[in-house]
Structure formats: structure tokens, C-alpha cells
């Protein structure tokens, strides 16, 4: 069981279903202000994203928290 599997219990079901749910075929991207999330949510999302970082192709889930793009524009 990997970190991404831990998110299933939080939502009551697997976050990815259907054809893209095969092993190595999903990737979680986090953007924005994760510090505004409750610690338990942030502690579940960060390792889930890290564990899927090297996955290519398949399903990509982008999660933007309090995201307005300002940081990317300034850089």
C-alpha cells in the first residue's frame, strides 16, 4: 500500500477509477498554498504526490489550493 492509497479512505473511495487506474498510470500534481490546508490533509497529499512523481502518461490529477498563478508569474 503506497501513500496515494491512503487518500482513498479520506474520500470514501479511490480517487482514480476506470482505465487510468492501473499501476504507474497516474500522477498527482500539487500547486498553490498547501500551508492553508489542515495538517492531516497536507500530510496525506504530499507523500501521494511524491510517490507518483516519476509516473508518465495515463491520468494526471492537478490539485490547486488557493492558487492564483502569482508565484509562477513573478518567477
From TrEMBL:
Keywords of the record: Transferase
This protein's name: Undecaprenyl diphosphate synthase family protein
Organism: Actinoplanes sichuanensis
Region of interest called Disordered, as start-end residue ranges on this chain: 1-29
Biased composition (Low complexity): 12-23
Pfam family of the protein (one): Prenyltransf
